[in-house]
Design brief:
Layout lengths: L3 E4 L6 H10 L4 E5 L13 H10 L6 E3 L11 H18 L6 E4 L9 H15 L7 E5 L12 H10 L6 E6 H7 L7 H11 L5 E6 L1 E2 L10 E2 L8 H9 L8 E3 L5 H13 L3
Parallel strand pairs: 1-2, 1-10, 2-3, 3-4, 4-5, 5-6, 6-7, 7-10
Antiparallel strand pairs: 8-9
Bound molecules: fe (iii) ion (2 copies) and zinc ion (ZN).
Zinc ion binds next to helix 6.
Length: 273
């Protein structure tokens, strides 16, 4: 059975997110751990979390780190801030154990990818707790500006350098990889073979299901509704039914409101075999 959901607002807490997920027939969801600009997180409501764990326990959910944080910044203050936020987020994640914490590897801002990768890996070594139950996910990026993580090789290099690689996985964003030059429309199998050879498919833990407003290899990051972009519905049908992918959680980050996501979930469920 297709495990699919979307990005939900976390402003009203975990129970509210679970209820919204149920309303649109989602079995998983993603949320920002705090304002996406990376400010202070709200105080946690432990009753809310306890109630949430009672009603939503079967499927893994994905927390998304604020995307404006840059873990490989050349500014020590910026990198330090990313470390503080990640540490705080990860300790909060242990209150909802065994889920995923996804982040954008960051932009090397002219230092070069190699230095960027070294900084990301050493930051991960500082924040990973040996006993944590949360798996940290590196998101595949489109390669806009000086983004790190637009190639499978760069993601693998980060994982290789981390002391506890078993705590790291990858979240594949369909819009990002297509923009980065991986042709999931015409050569899905060969892209997955590449992923398996370079990173290992066992590291693939979640899929961000987004169509794209821009053409193949554009190195842009503009999400589109499912079936209305350059990727197209047929490819999403191939992805959700692919034997190597169909067991994964699929998260929609398409430009939609709740009812739009409800329709996309209904459509994709009807096309899942
Ligand atoms: Fe993301
Ligand atoms: Fe994404
Ligand atoms: Zn994106």
């Amino acid at each position: 059975m297709l495990n699919i959901g979307c990005h939900l607002s976390s402003s009203k807490g975990f129970v509210a997110m679970a209820k919204n997920a149920f309303t649109i027939s989602a079995s998983t969801f993603q949320f920002f751990t705090r304002n996406p600009q990376g400010s202070k997180a709200k105080d946690l409501d432990l009753n809310d979390i306890e109630e949430f764990l009672k009603i939503f326990s079967d499927k893994k959910i994905v927390a998304h780190a604020p995307y404006t944080l840059n873990p490989c910044s050349d500014n020590p203050k910026t990198a330090e801030f990313a470390e503080l936020v990640f540490k705080d987020d990860l300790s909060r994640m242990e209150l909802i154990p065994n889920n995923y914490y996804n982040f954008h590897p960051g932009s090397h801002v002219g230092q070069g990818a190699k230095i960027g990768i070294d900084k990301i890996a050493s930051l991960l070594d500082k924040i990973i707790m040996p006993n944590q139950t949360t798996t940290i996910l590196l998101e595949t990026m489109s390669g806009k500006g000086s983004e790190v993580g637009a190639t499978f090789e760069e993601l693998q290099e980060i994982i290789k350098q981390v002391e506890l690689p078993e705590k790291i996985g990858v979240c594949l964003d369909t819009c990002h990889v297509y923009s980065a030059g991986y042709d999931i429309v015409n050569q899905l199998d060969s892209v997955l073979e590449k992923f398996d050879k370079i990173i290992g498919l066992e590291k693939l833990k979640a899929i961000h299901l987004n169509d794209s407003k821009t053409e193949f290899n554009s190195h842009k990051d503009r999400h589109e509704q499912i079936g209305k972009g350059t990727i197209g519905l047929d490819t999403f049908v191939n992805i959700i039914n692919h034997k190597k992918l169909k067991h994964l959680p699929f998260i929609l980050e398409t430009p939609n409101d709740l009812s739009g996501w409800q329709q996309e979930i209904k459509l994709l469920k009807s096309l899942s075999k």
